[in-house]
């Protein structure tokens, strides 16, 4: 087959070159369709019960909004100029296109009892401008005596103050989001620079914009660095700018195709897909190294360029195909995870690696057929003294120290299995960020001062309409709130309970000691006051919804938009957010710290235990984005383990197809599984947890490391036939010829993946570091352990391998039709001589 492919390529080389160029142009035209992703991917399948519960929750109580939050810690916050500037800062932010609501202590509201009209007047706590310090002190006293806002907008104990804004989804899902966030940062910086205070930022709009911009910046940086690193290493190997430039051009074509596929299928750039272009550069260079190395070796052997190119295709085409299949398999198995972000990554990676193989297979022989023959400087790498001496040292170990190799391998395996027992599984909302990242530090600020930002929702279905407002049920809800609020990692709830307490305090003229549920005597009076309360001017009332602010879900606890003469009752508006329309279901919104998936699993079980004690006969649910995240992360890790097992099975199948021997499959997998065990052990010893970003390492590294195994065993299979089943001689010859390319490609892969250690994202850093370690260990295993196993292997297995070799052995003179060879020019003849 490969003889025919070689003939077709070389006879129609101009047509193939033009075809690749045209396809690259077409794919390049798709690149403008690629967009950055500013949304979080759904990790749970739609049939999962937790996903269904969350969707039902959003249907009943409304979807959460996109909220950005700022916070400062200032013991002198209530200075006249500072407060006026804080108010002005908030007004300026609220005026920005895309900001639909804003809430802070200076933009909050109070309920004031109106005895004459038997209603509550909703009054601004602060005017647009405070005239003097005496007025400010009076306003401060009122504001700090409203428990409703404590630990939401202010922490009196730590002197921390926050401001939250709602960003419209139309802006959040458009390029305008970047300008909006930048404008907000400029406005807040004017305040912080003037008063020399540090502003902390968090919330999804801010985190997603900052992370997306960092992802885009790092993608460009890693593309440039990977090209630079691989180009330098290629030049050190081949000493030819022409070869380096051509290899880089081929890889550049592959990157264009990869990004073009993303544009064609409308797949957005995420943290994972952003890594694909630099990954393709690192993964694709070995194809070039193997093919150029083989071409040079063949040309030096007989001095005929076309014959050398044809033999290059014939002898390593199948091995290169299989090695690319195994690499693609490591990525493609992600499609079984049911996670959109991983499915897209695996799909695009498969298409990109397949197209990269085709581009290399077509362009290297066809373009090299037009280029001048390699000179002695370019082929000098075939006799690299350092590499050859290293291979000789390896051969000495393989031939005379195999027992030591097995002892060392056994020790590594024992230490590896022990290290694996120390491995931990966990995941955090900001897992991809390093500990030193400002976003992570700012999140810690809100966890310390405002009980975190991650929403955890509790719903109670009382079974019959209008039962939420029964005093007995309100008391149960209050008991639940008190029970859960004892947990230092949970906030008190925002719910119908807090609104009722706020109204009770207002009924008793703002006395903070009456911030509690109405009793049976006063409940009906207070409900009448609430029913008579009208909503005031447009865009004024703000508060908290699911850890966020929502313009659509209204009064006391939510931003609303209503005309001045609106007369809808506050109770009705509260019910939209914290009570189902029929009064059957109640909602309580808590905030939880980013404590990791393991602790969240325990936390969920604890909350359910308390719920079942307080509401034994009612239907209770615990949901929210914090629950969805930890369950999604757990589901993802489970599926990634499955994908790793599937990758091993697929690659084992490829090996079985290649060598027709079960034991040979075992021998080929051992040198690639040992490095995986070593890496897993290092994760255990150095307390690197198993999470989505680190478990990716195993599938990716396994698929790539097997490439060296395939190329070595391909050459070994050829040598077995040519040496008439002489295992020892076949192992030596295969190592001498394939070993050099194995070392070259492993060095490129090691340094290529190492550049990801420069990432500001912890997941990308871990992927780069752990994959580099795994691939380096795999290189040593394939160079030392694999030949040792082959020498130990009995001749019966070797004979079975040689019966139906996957790689045909070609006679040095009869492998091609000499009439089809291109006549050499005089310059080529002189070069040969």
CATH superfamily of the largest domain: Multidrug efflux transporter AcrB transmembrane domain
- C-alpha-based Rg, rounded: 34 Å
Mean pLDDT over all positions: 84
Helical segment tally?
Answer: 27
Distance between the termini: 34 Å
Annotated CATH architecture of the largest domain: Up-down Bundle
Walkthrough of the structure:
The protein is α+β, with helices and mostly antiparallel strands and 833 residues long. The chain has 2 domains: 2-33 and 209-421 and 630-832, Multidrug efflux transporter AcrB transmembrane domain (Multidrug efflux transporter AcrB transmembrane fold), CATH 1.20.1640.10; 49-193 and 439-447 and 454-623, no CATH class. It is built from 27 helices and 11 strands. The strands form 3 sheets. Strands 1, 2, 5, 6 and 7 form a 5-stranded antiparallel β-sheet that branches. Strands 9-10-8-11 form a 4-stranded antiparallel β-sheet, sandwiched between helices. A hairpin with a 4-residue loop joins strand 5 (154-155) and strand 6. Helix 11 (305-332) packs antiparallel against helix 23 (692-722). The longest helix is centred in the N-terminal third of the chain and has 35 residues, at 204-238. It is elongated. The two termini are 34 Å apart.
């Amino acid at each position: 087959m490969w003889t025919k492919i070689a003939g077709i390529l070389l006879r129609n080389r101009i047509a193939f070159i033009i075809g690749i160029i045209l396809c690259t142009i077409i794919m390049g035209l798709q690149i403008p369709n690629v967009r950055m992703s500013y949304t979080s991917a759904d990790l749970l399948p739609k049939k999962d019960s937790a996903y269904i519960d969350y969707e039902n929750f959003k249907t009943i109580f409304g979807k959460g909004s996109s909220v950005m939050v700022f916070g400062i810690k200032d013991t002198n916050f209530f200075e006249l100029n500072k407060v006026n500037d804080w108010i002005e800062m908030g007004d300026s932010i609220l005026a920005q296109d895309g900001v639909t609501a804003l809430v802070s202590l200076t933009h909050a509201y109070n309920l004031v009892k109106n005895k004459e009209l038997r209603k509550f007047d909703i009054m601004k706590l602060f005017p647009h401008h405070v005239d003097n310090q005496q007025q400010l002190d009076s306003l401060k006293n009122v504001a700090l005596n409203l428990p409703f806002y404590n630990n939401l907008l202010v922490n009196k104990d730590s002197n921390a103050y926050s401001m939250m804004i709602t960003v419209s989804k139309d802006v959040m899902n458009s390029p305008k989001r970047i300008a909006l966030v930048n404008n907000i940062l400029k406005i807040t910086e004017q305040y912080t620079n003037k008063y020399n205070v540090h502003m902390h930022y968090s919330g999804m709009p801010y985190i997603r914009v900052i992370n997306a911009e960092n992802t885009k910046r790092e993608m460009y940086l890693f593309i440039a660095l990977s090209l630079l690193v691989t180009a330098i290493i290629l030049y050190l190997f081949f000493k030819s700018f022409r070869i380096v430039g051509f290899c880089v051009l081929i890889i550049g074509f592959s990157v264009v195709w990869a990004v073009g596929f993303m544009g064609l299928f409308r797949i957005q750039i995420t943290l994972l897909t952003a890594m694909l272009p630099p990954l393709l550069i690192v993964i694709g260079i070995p194809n070039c190294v193997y093919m150029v190395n083989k071409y040079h070796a063949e040309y030096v052997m007989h001095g005929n360029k076309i014959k050398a190119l044809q033999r290059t295709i014939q002898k390593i085409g199948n091995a290169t195909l299989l090695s690319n299949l195994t690499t693609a398999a490591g990525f493609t198995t992600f499609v079984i995870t049911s996670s959109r972000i991983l499915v897209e990554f695996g799909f695009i990676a498969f298409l990109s690696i397949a197209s990269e193989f085709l581009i290399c297979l077509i362009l290297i022989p066809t373009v090299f057929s037009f280029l001048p023959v390699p000179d002695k400087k370019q082929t000098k790498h075939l006799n690299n003294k350092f590499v050859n001496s290293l291979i000789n040292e390896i051969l000495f170990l393989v031939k005379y120290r195999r027992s030591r190799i097995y002892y060392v391998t056994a020790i590594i395996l024992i230490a590896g299995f022990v290290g694996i027992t120390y491995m931990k599984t966990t995941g955090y909302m900001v897992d991809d960020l390093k500990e030193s990242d400002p976003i992570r530090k700012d999140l810690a600020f809100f966890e310390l001062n405002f009980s975190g930002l991650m929403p955890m929702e509790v719903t109670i279905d009382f079974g019959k309409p209008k039962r939420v407002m029964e005093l007995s049920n309100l008391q149960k809800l209050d008991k639940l709130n008190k029970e859960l609020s004892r947990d230092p990692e949970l906030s008190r709830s925002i719910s119908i309970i807090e609104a009722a307490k706020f109204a009770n305090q207002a009924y008793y003229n703002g006395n903070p000691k009456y911030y509690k549920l109405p009793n049976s005597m006063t409940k009906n009076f207070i409900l009448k006051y609430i029913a008579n309360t009208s909503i005031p001017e447009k865009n004024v009332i703000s508060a908290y919804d699911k850890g966020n602010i929502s313009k659509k879900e209204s009064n006391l606890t939510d931003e609303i938009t209503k005309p001045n003469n609106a007369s809808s009752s506050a109770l009705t508006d509260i019910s939209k957010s914290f009570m189902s329309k029929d009064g059957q279901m109640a909602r309580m919104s808590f905030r939880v710290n980013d404590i990791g998936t393991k602790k969240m699993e325990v936390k969920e079980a604890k909350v359910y235990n308390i719920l079942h004690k307080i509401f034994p006969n009612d239907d209770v649910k615990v949901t929210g984005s914090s629950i969805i995240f930890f369950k999604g992360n757990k589901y993802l890790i489970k599926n990634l383990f499955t994908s790793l097992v599937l990758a091993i099975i697929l690659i084992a199948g490829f090996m079985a197809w290649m060598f027709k021997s079960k034991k040979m499959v075992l021998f080929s997998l051992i040198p690639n599984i040992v490095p995986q065990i070593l890496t897993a052990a290092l994760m255990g010893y150095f307390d690197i947890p198993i999470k989505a970003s680190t478990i990716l390492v195993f599938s990716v590294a396994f698929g790539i490391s097997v490439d060296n195994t395939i190329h070595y065993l391909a050459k070994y299979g050829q040598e077995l036939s040519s040496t008439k089943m002489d295992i020892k001689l076949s192992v030596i010859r295969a190592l001498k010829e394939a070993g050099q390319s194995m070392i070259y490609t492993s060095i490129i892969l090691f340094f290529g993946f190492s550049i990801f250690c420069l990432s500001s994202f912890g997941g990308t850093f871990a992927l780069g570091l752990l994959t580099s370690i795994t691939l380096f260990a795999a290189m040593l295993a394939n160079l030392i352990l694999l030949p040792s196993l082959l020498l130990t292997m009995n001749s019966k297995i070797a004979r079975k391998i040689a019966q139906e070799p996957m790689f045909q052995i070609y006679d040095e003179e009869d492998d091609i039709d000499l009439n089809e060879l291109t006549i050499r020019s005089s310059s080529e003849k002189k070069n040969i001589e």
